[in-house]
Design goal:
Blueprint lengths: L1 E5 L5 E4 L13 E3 L4 H14 L6 H7 L4 H23 L4 H14 L10 E6 L5 H11 L4 E3 L4 H6 L4 E3 L11 H7 L8 E10 L2 E10 L4 E5 L5 H4 L2 E6 L5 H4 L8 H20 L5 H12 L18 H13 L4 H17 L8 H23 L1 H11 L7 E2 H12 L8 H10 L3 E7 L2 E6 L1 H8 L4
Parallel strand pairs: 4-9, 4-10, 5-6, 6-9
Antiparallel strand pairs: 1-2, 1-3, 7-8, 11-13, 12-13
Helix pairs in contact: 3-4, 3-5, 3-10, 4-13, 13-14, 14-15, 15-16, 15-18
Length: 456
C-alpha cells in the first residue's frame, strides 16, 4: 500500500494503485513523504517503548543528536528489521542476509548511484527463492514481482523489479529483453519508441525516450548466462529442513514491513533535499583520487550521511584496496559499501562496513573461482603459467594435447585451430613460424603469470 497526498486539501490517501483524484475533486496528487520531524519523533517513540527492555536506549533519547545521526539510526533500524523479517521466514546464511538488507535499503537511493547491482537468487526447487523474492519486493522501493516479462514492462514501469522463473527469459524471442537487462544496471541507457501525437495538422510520429536503469532482482533454478551474471551479486539459497521455517506463511502486509517501507521512503526524500556534500558521486570522485594518489580535500559535512574525518574515509578506502575486489565486481560492490558506511557507527554499533566488505570480498572470490573453472581463456592462462618455461618453439599440437589434459576434456572442438586462435587472441606468443609439420610458437610465460593473477 502506498500513500499519496492531495496538493489542494492535503488529504492523505492510502491505495495499492495511483488514485486518479481526491475526494475534494482535485487530480493534483503526489507521493506522500513523512515530514522529517514526524519521522524522527515516530522513531524516538518506538525506542521509548523499548526503554524498559533495553536501558541503553535512554542515553540516546536524552542526548542532543544531530540530524544526520538521527537518519543513520533510522537506517540502522531498517537494516536490522529487514534481516529480522528474512531470518524469520528463511533458513539462510546470515552473512548473505546482511547483503540482501543493504541491497533493499539501496533501492530507495539507487538513483544517486551510477550503477546498481542485480541481485540473483539461485536455488533448487522448494528452497524458498520465490518467498525471498516476494519479501524483497515487499520491502524495496516500489517493489513488484513479475513471472512473465516483456521488454515493455522493463522500460515503461518504475520501481524495484523482481523477476521470478527467469528460465522463461532465455527462450527464443526474448533476445531484446536480455539485451536491455544487460545494460539496465547502469545509469544512462535509454530506449526510444515512436508514438503517434495529435496536432492541428493531423497525426505525427514523435520520439519518446525511456530510462531502463532500475533495481532488479532475478530468481531461477537453472542459472543465467555469463554476460548477465557478470552484472549480479549471486545469492545461493539452500533447501531448509527446519520445519518451523517451511511451515510459516509469509505475510507481506505485516506492520514491521510497512514501517520499513515508510521510514526508508521518507529518509530517501530527506536525503535528496539535504545531502549536498557526501553523495555517492562525491565518494566515487574521492575514491578515484585516492587510487591515483592525488591530493584531495576532506569531506566535512553536517548533512546525511556523515563521514567524520578524512582519516576515516582514507582508512575505508585502504580497506577496499587491500581486497582483491576490482573491475566489474568493484563497480557492483561500491554502492552497497557506501550504504554500509552510512549505517556504520549508528548508536555506537561499529563494524558494519568491515563485515560487509569481508562478505562482498568472499562473494567476489567465489565468483572468480567459478569463472576460472568455466572460462577456457582463463584456464589457458593458468595452464601456460604453470608450464616449465622454455625458449624454443613448441608446436600447437603439443600445446593442445597438454591443455586438453589440463582441463580434462576430450571435446572435439577443443583442437589445434581453437588453441591457435586463443593464443593469438590473448597475445600469449612472442614468435610464430609455419613448418611442414604444422605451426610452432614461442610462448609468453610471464604474461600468462601476470594475467592469471587477475582471476585468483
Amino acid at each position: 500500500m502506498e500513500k499519496y497526498q492531495c496538493q489542494v486539501c492535503e488529504t492523505i490517501i492510502t491505495s495499492e494503485q495511483v488514485p486518479t483524484k481526491c475526494s475534494c475533486g482535485s487530480r493534483n496528487l503526489e507521493e506522500y513523504f513523512m515530514p522529517k520531524k514526524e519521522l524522527f519523533a515516530k522513531f524516538k517513540d518506538d525506542l521509548l517503548k523499548k526503554e524498559e527492555d533495553n536501558p541503553l536506549h535512554r542515553s540516546f533519547l536524552v542526548e542532543e543528536i544531530e540530524e544526520e545521526e538521527e537518519v543513520k539510526k533510522v537506517l540502522l533500524r531498517a537494516f536490522e528489521d529487514i534481516q529480522f523479517i528474512i531470518n524469520r521466514y528463511l533458513d539462510m546464511d546470515k552473512k548473505l542476509v546482511k547483503i540482501i538488507a543493504l541491497w533493499i535499503i539501496g533501492t530507495y537511493f539507487h538513483k544517486n548511484f551510477n550503477t546498481y547491482p542485480y541481485l540473483y537468487l539461485n536455488a533448487m526447487r522448494g528452497s524458498g527463492k520465490t518467498r525471498l523474492l516476494k519479501l524483497i519486493a515487499a520491502m524495496s522501493w516500489k517493489g513488484d514481482v513479475q513471472n512473465s516479462m516483456t521488454e515493455a514492462v522493463l522500460f515503461r514501469t518504475q520501481g524495484t523489479l523482481c523477476i521470478d522463473e527467469f528460465e522463461r527469459a532465455g527462450k527464443r524471442g526474448s533476445e531484446n529483453l536480455l539485451e536491455l537487462l544487460n545494460s539496465a544496471y547502469k545509469k544512462g541507457t535509454t530506449v526510444k519508441r515512436m508514438k503517434k501525437k495529435k496536432t492541428p495538422d493531423g497525426e505525427e510520429q514523435v520520439v519518446e525516450s525511456y530510462l531502463v536503469y532500475r533495481p532488479i532482482s532475478i530468481a531461477n533454478i537453472t542459472g543465467i548466462d555469463n554476460v548477465l551474471g557478470d552484472r549480479c551479486i549471486k545469492i545461493i539459497i539452500e533447501k531448509s529442513i527446519n520445519e518451523k521455517k517451511t511451515r510459516l506463511l509469509e505475510n507481506v502486509l505485516e506492520s514491521r514491513i510497512s514501517s520499513i517501507k515508510e521510514n526508508l521512503k521518507s529518509i530517501s526524500s530527506i536525503r535528496c533535499s539535504l545531502c549536498n556534500e557526501v553523495t555517492p558521486q562525491n565518494l566515487l570522485v574521492e575514491w578515484n583520487k585516492y587510487i591515483l594518489e592525488e591530493e584531495y580535500t576532506p569531506i566535512y559535512t553536517h548533512t546525511l550521511p556523515t563521514l567524520h574525518t578524512l582519516t576515516t574515509l582514507k582508512q575505508r578506502f585502504h580497506s577496499i584496496k587491500e581486497t582483491t575486489i576490482n573491475g566489474r565486481d568493484l563497480e557492483l560492490s561500491f554502492p552497497l559499501l557506501i550504504i554500509s558506511m552510512w549505517i556504520d557507527g549508528a548508536m555506537g554499533l561499529e563494524g558494519i562496513f568491515d563485515e560487509s566488505l569481508d562478505i562482498l570480498h568472499d562473494i567476489s572470490k567465489n565468483k572468480k573461482e567459478e569463472e576460472s573453472i568455466e572460462n577456457l581463456d582463463i584456464s589457458l592462462y593458468d595452464y601456460i603459467s604453470q608450464e616449465i618455461e622454455v625458449y624454443y618453439f613448441i608446436s600447437i599440437q603439443k600445446i593442445t594435447e597438454g591443455f586438453r589434459q589440463f582441463v580434462q576434456t576430450n571435446d572435439e572442438w577443443l583442437n589445434n585451430k581453437w588453441v591457435g586462435r586463443a593464443l593469438s587472441r590473448l597475445k600469449l606468443t612472442t614468435d610464430k613460424r609455419r613448418l611442414r609439420r604444422g605451426i610452432e610458437v614461442r610462448l609468453d610465460y610471464n604474461k600468462a603469470k601476470e594475467k592469471i593473477k587477475m582471476f585468483k
